[in-house]
Amino acid sequence: MEPRTILRNVAPGDVAAYVRMRCDPAMMAELGGPVPRDGIEDKVRRDVRDAAADKAWIKMIVPAGDLDAVAGTVSLWSHELDGEVLSEIGWMVLPEWQGRGIGKRAVRTLLEMARADGRWGFVHAFPGTANAPSNGICRSLGFSLAEEKEIIFAGRPMLTNHWLIDPRTDL
Ligand SMILES: CC(C)(COP(=O)(O)OP(=O)(O)OC[C@H]1O[C@@H](n2cnc3c(N)ncnc32)[C@H](O)[C@@H]1OP(=O)(O)O)[C@@H](O)C(=O)NCCC(=O)NCCS
User: Separation of 95 CA from ligand 1 center, angstroms?
Assistant: First the structure.
């Protein structure tokens, strides 16, 4: 059965969860490899600030039965790509929580929030072409596949599938 989860804003105490997600070779295999440990406190600080300012939605996925635990993360932010400002969604689920529908549920929840909020327009996602579960999430939530695209993630090039969805009509 799928565990019940809630989404909450990232907080200063999430450094350990970030380290587990971003500095681990297996977690980052489809994201260009792990990032250096020494930048994580800074990254959490910036994410907490951007989430508090409502500039980006940076959510931790928390199991409803254990609010001190973290199962993963899902984020929606806006940035410039090829001279165009776009909204992008990204996600990660820690190994012990994977394969139980948590990633898909969290992405759907954030897209429902985006639909209600109205500011984000089309939402883009760029999973690696070999990332079966992430491409599965896009396909089954109603994203359309636009193209294969090389993007820079955490400073490194990565071949991705470019998916997009209009949460107002496609979800
Ligand atoms: C990708 C990731 C977020 C998936 O989260 P998850 O909670 O395990 O995924 P779910 O259980 O919600 O499954 C999502 C879909 O993928 C499918 N799926 C899950 N694992 C799969 C696998 N190993 N191979 C193929 N499909 C798979 C599921 O069946 C589901 O599709 P469906 O609804 O059509 O049945 C998680 O594996 C992860 O964090 N990996 C490492 C980091 C990463 O790659 N992040 C994503 C960057 S875009």
Answer: 11
